[in-house]
Amino acid sequence: MKKIISLGLLLLGVGMMGVSTVAESVSQYENPVFEPVLADPTLIRAEDGTFYAYGTEDDWGDGAGPHLIPILRSDNMTEWEYVDDAFASKPDWKEEGGLWAPHIAYHQGTYLLYYSMSTWGDPNPGIGVATASHPAGPFQDQGPLFTSEEIGVDNSIDPMFFVDDGKPTLIWGSFHGIYGIRLSDDGLKTEGEKFPIAGNAFEAPYLIKRDGNYYLFVSLGSCCEGESSTYHVAVGRAEAIEGPYRDREGNDLLHSNGSPVLVGDQEAEKEKRFVGPGHNAVFRDDDGTDWIVYHGIDPTNPYLLGGATRRPLLIDRLRWKDGWPQVEGLVPSTEPMTGPVWK
């Protein structure tokens, strides 16, 4: 059985006004940090310090039917509990489709939940947005931003919201190019023209800005073939949000597969623990350490009862070297690890 140990540390500092104390919380964790499934995870830290994570619609086999974007809650990012679903009923702006690959953001006093609506092989999937005053919801659907036909990009799923110099931007795409487009100030409508930033090898974009550079994390390979899944994470770097994004060797991600960040352990059967890691988010703790949050697949238990690939939630530390991020050893950790630091 996995052991989770919570530690409370007291840091003492002496200032001009006397002695002050700062509480610091550190956790020990072992992957996965939540199961049975939280595919395509996105997370946010609320004003009270509590974390909320959201994932793709799945039937967990718990008798509740499909969870319409399940919401988890945690105090430390390593111990999670299920709270509720983002939606009581599925948005009706599309006749059919699952609620996939959400992205959560807090903008202008409102929680924005972007989501994909699609089926496998869908000729016209789209991206919608819902709003709430609290990260646990209830979320009110605001309808679609666009469908694939409207925006002119096939398989338009996997949204990611990013504010660049005060301007909201949506990044999205799945194996038909990764694109960006400016949004209205409230984040509920598109403005201007789309711009390409990466090629057809990728989906699940996630953008951060570090030390003046933009880092685009993307996933490649097959996400959902059980123990045979080949999903993995790569990255490119740019000096502007529009790109060009280049790998370590200077190749443009419009034509390159990026530089590796995290791959599955496909070798040595005795060593293999997680395959198909990907569709990540990145979060920085209070100690300045970056963490990658993602799903992976246990090859000894790869499917949910309904037959969908079982993708539990994992986290790992990102280590930076020469301006590039990477998970140690490029594979998901399987041993007990020291978790994020929170103050």
TrEMBL record:
Gene3D superfamilies (alphabetical): Glycosyl hydrolase domain, family 43
Residues the record annotates as the site (Important for catalytic activity, responsible for pKa modulation of the active site Glu and correct orientation of both the proton donor and substrate) are D158
Q: In which pathway does it act?
A: Glycan metabolism; L-arabinan degradation
- Where in the sequence is the active site? D40 (proton acceptor), E203 (proton donor)
* Region forming the signal peptide: 1-22
Q: Name one GO biological process term.
A: carbohydrate metabolic process
Keyword list, A-Z: Glycosidase, Hydrolase, Signal
Q: Which molecular function term from Gene Ontology is one that the record holds?
A: hydrolase activity, hydrolyzing O-glycosyl compounds
**Entry-linked SUPFAM superfamilies:** Arabinanase/levansucrase/invertase
Pfam families named among the record's database cross-references: Glyco_hydro_43 (PF04616)
InterPro entries in the record: GH43_arabinanases, Glyco_hydro_43, Glyco_hydro_beta-prop_sf
Record-stated family: Belongs to the glycosyl hydrolase 43 family.
Name the record gives this protein = Arabinan endo-1,5-alpha-L-arabinosidase
